[in-house]
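sry for the spam today, last one i promise. C-alpha cells for design, 313 residues
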C-alpha cells in the first residue's frame, strides 16, 4: 500500500457484528493487529445503538443474528449512514451475493472466514471508499470553482442569476419579500490609474470581505462584474434593505487602505442602489431597477444609498 492507503487503514473504524462471542473476540483481535480501530456488537440492535453514537467506516456483520438479521441491518445502515458493509454467512445455499448487494453490501464472505481473505476484502472496500470520497471532494471543489469569483471569493455573476431566479420563485410561492442591492466602487478607474491594478485587486478582495461581514447567513453576495457587486436579501423588505445598504456603505468608508507609493491611508467609497421585488415582474426588470437606483447615487454625488421601490420609478 502507498502512504495514502496506509493512512486510510490506520484511521479506519470497524464494527464487527456477530452473536458468537468467540468469533467476535477472534476477529476483533485480528482486525486490531492489522492496524484498525475496532468495536464489536452481539446483535443488530446493539450495532445500531453504537452507530448512532460512534463514527465507523465499515461494518462487518453476520447474516444470522438474533432478532433483526444482517441483511436488514445492512439495509438500515445504508439508508441512514455513510458506512460500507461486509456481510458474512455460513449458509452459502440460503443467501446469495446478489441479495447482499441489493441491500447495499460492499462485499460478501463465507464462514468460516479466512482472516487473510477478510483483510484483503476490507482493504479493498476501504480503498474504494477513499477513492469515492476523493471523487466527491473533487466534484465539490469544481462546483465551488464554477460558481465563485477567483479574486474576491464571492459568488460570480453566473451564479447570481441562478440564485436570483430561485429566490424569486420562492418569494412568489410563499408571498414573502425579497430585496436586491447593487453597488459600485466610486472613482475606481482613478484608483487603478494612480496605484496600479494589483492595488486595485487588493481593494476588490477587501471590499468582498467587508460586504460579507455585514450580512446575515441567509443573504448572499456576488461580484457582478469589474468593480460592481450585488447582494440578494431574502425575507427583506425595501426599508430593511436600505438599512443593510447603509451599514455596508458606512463600513466600506470607514475602512482604510495603504497602497504602495502613498504614505497616507486611503478610504474607498461605494454607491449603492436598493430595490424590492414586485411580483410577477421579470428578473431583468428587477435588476435594471437596482441598477437605476445605483446610478441615481452616482448622479447625486456618490458615496450614498438610493432606493427605487416601485416599478414606475
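last one done:
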Amino acid at each position: 500500500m502507498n502512504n495514502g492507503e496506509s493512512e486510510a487503514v490506520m484511521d479506519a473504524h470497524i464494527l464487527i457484528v456477530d452473536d458468537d462471542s468467540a468469533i467476535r473476540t477472534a476477529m476483533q483481535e485480528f482486525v486490531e493487529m492489522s492496524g484498525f480501530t475496532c468495536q464489536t456488537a452481539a446483535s443488530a440492535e446493539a450495532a445500531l445503538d453504537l452507530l448512532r453514537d460512534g463514527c465507523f467506516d465499515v461494518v462487518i456483520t453476520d447474516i444470522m443474528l438474533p432478532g433483526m438479521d444482517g441483511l436488514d441491518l445492512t439495509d438500515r445502515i445504508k439508508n441512514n449512514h455513510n458506512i460500507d458493509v461486509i456481510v458474512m454467512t455460513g449458509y452459502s445455499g440460503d443467501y446469495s451475493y446478489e441479495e447482499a448487494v441489493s441491500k447495499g453490501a460492499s462485499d460478501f464472505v463465507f464462514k468460516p472466514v479466512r482472516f487473510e481473505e477478510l483483510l484483503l476484502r476490507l482493504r479493498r472496500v476501504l480503498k474504494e471508499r477513499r477513492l469515492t470520497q476523493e471523487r466527491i471532494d473533487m466534484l465539490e471543489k469544481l462546483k465551488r470553482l464554477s460558481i465563485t469569483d477567483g479574486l474576491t471569493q464571492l459568488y460570480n455573476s453566473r451564479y447570481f442569476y441562478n440564485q436570483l431566479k430561485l429566490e424569486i420563485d420562492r418569494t412568489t410561492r410563499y408571498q414573502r419579500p425579497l430585496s436586491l442591492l447593487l453597488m459600485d466602487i466610486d472613482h475606481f478607474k482613478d484608483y487603478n490609474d494612480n496605484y496600479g491594478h494589483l492595488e486595485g485587486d487588493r481593494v476588490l478582495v477587501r471590499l468582498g470581505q467587508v460586504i460579507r461581514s455585514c450580512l446575515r447567513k441567509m443573504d448572499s453576495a456576488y461580484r457582478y462584474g469589474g468593480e460592481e457587486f450585488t447582494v440578494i436579501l431574502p425575507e427583506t423588505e425595501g426599508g430593511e434593505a436600505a438599512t443593510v445598504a447603509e451599514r455596508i456603505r458606512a463600513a466600506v468608508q470607514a475602512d482604510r487602505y495603504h497602497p504602495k507609493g502613498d504614505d497616507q491611508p486611503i478610504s474607498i467609497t461605494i454607491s449603492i442602489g436598493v430595490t424590492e421585488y414586485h411580483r410577477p415582474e421579470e428578473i431583468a426588470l428587477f435588476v435594471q431597477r437596482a441598477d437605476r437606483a445605483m446610478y441615481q447615487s452616482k448622479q447625486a454625488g456618490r458615496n450614498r444609498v438610493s432606493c427605487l421601490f416601485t416599478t414606475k420609478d
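Residues 3-139 form a domain with the Rossmann fold fold (CATH 3.40.50.2300). ok im logging off now
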